[in-house]
Amino acid sequence: MSETNRSTGTQLVKRGLAEMLKGGVIMDVVDAGQARIAEDAGATAVMALERVPSDIRRDGGVARMSDPEMIEAIKETVTIPVMAKVRIGHFAEAQILESLGVDYVDESEVLTPADEAHHIDKWAFTVPFVCGATDLGEALRRISEGACLIRSKGEAGTGNIVEAVRHLRSILGDLRRITQADSAELFDWAKRLQAPLPLVQEIADTGRLPVPMFCAGGIATPADASLVMQLGAEAVFVGSGIFKSDDPAPRARAIVEATTNFADPTLLAKVSRGLGDAMPGLEIGTLETRLADRGW
Amino acid sequence: MKVGVLALQGAFASHVATLTDAGATPIEVRRPHDLAEVDALVVPGGESTTMSMLLDIAELRAPLADRLADGMPTFGTCAGMILLAVEVLDGRSDQRSLGAIDLDVRRNGYGRQVDSFETDLEVDGLDGTFHGVFIRAPVVERVGPDVEVLAEVDGRPVLCRQGNVLVSAFHPELAGDARIHRRFLEAAFASGTAAT
Fold first, then answer.
1. Among chain B residues, CA nearest to A4
2. Residue B18 lies in domain
3. Which of A85, A98, A9, A12 is nearest to A46 (CA)?
4. The complex's ipTM?
């Protein structure tokens, strides 16, 4: 019998995996042990990286793609999808991750950018990409480069939700405003957003981004997860917030429960009890490096 | 007849939209009292390990098992198929499924995300092909004697039915084609009419 004609790496299968991750929590992990804890706590996926953002912020230096050996060990440990980060514009790191069979690549501002003008041409890959955005124009530029999932950037490694809220409100607010615009105004929107007109016209028709939108950067508590889900995020990424807290396993599980039941304050009160200290937070005004400013 | 979509995690919004296209007014099921209200249920794709844990937390596992034993029409896609199967291969050692359809399935049996694919399917009883979207899809490794196979890919079952339970390894909710959902609703309605 002849093999069925299969198409891989299509937009539908790339965006489709993001659909499957909705309503869930994707957790940053630096080794197989943390990946196990994340899966046990109900993570829908893990994000493999060398150091969590708060350590990158503290230690400085150039932050790069993780060691393939560590990624292999994580892949062997968990059954859920494994994502990993590459530097902005570093298509060679992305080619390596694709060859390792990683399920999603995050072209991330948390790592040190490799290219000051260009993001990766993500259409050239079979593996899907997620990219960060601070506003709608940035989100649409990443989608036009082939990103199949957008996450609001927030400010990684701070445990401070204020930037994530700013970015979500900016993106979702502009989505709503575009649905009110007439056809002539859409040309001006495309110009102001520095984004392709067809994507702006698509938003005017549908009222939503063409790909799923998740939230990242600063989520440290179950209440933070509830806040961003109520604002309109479709899932959350938690970085330093879990493994830099006092007691990661119960906090991870509580954030999973809060993301599913984000609109149920009674349940949120229950899962927020007795979790120990959250990660120490940072005031945005005191930061030396604003990671969210990376990306063009 | 009221149809529900299990809304703990995953692609539940796409199922709600597709069921709406098929003429239903679905509700999201998150708690036991939601489940008590529905006559039929869709169990969506997502991460089966996460959904399995959330079923326990929401205290939905026992009432769902009871409803399945009572013959509630149920449609599981991808992770939903895994949750409704008898045995799960390559899953977590503590992964428990509901045993509502006599199948053994292998998680991510087609490979990782880079192996996820689209293909046109011949579906028993549908005119023309149906576009199958397979995302880290499970492979059916064993089919029980009372299970009907309604579609296959390379000799592997991808759409199966036993009694009132329908399962697919692919994602009809992502295909922009409500025919399989419509057929599920018609069968569910017929079984409800037969019962009363």
1. B154
2. 2-191
3. A85
4. 0.94
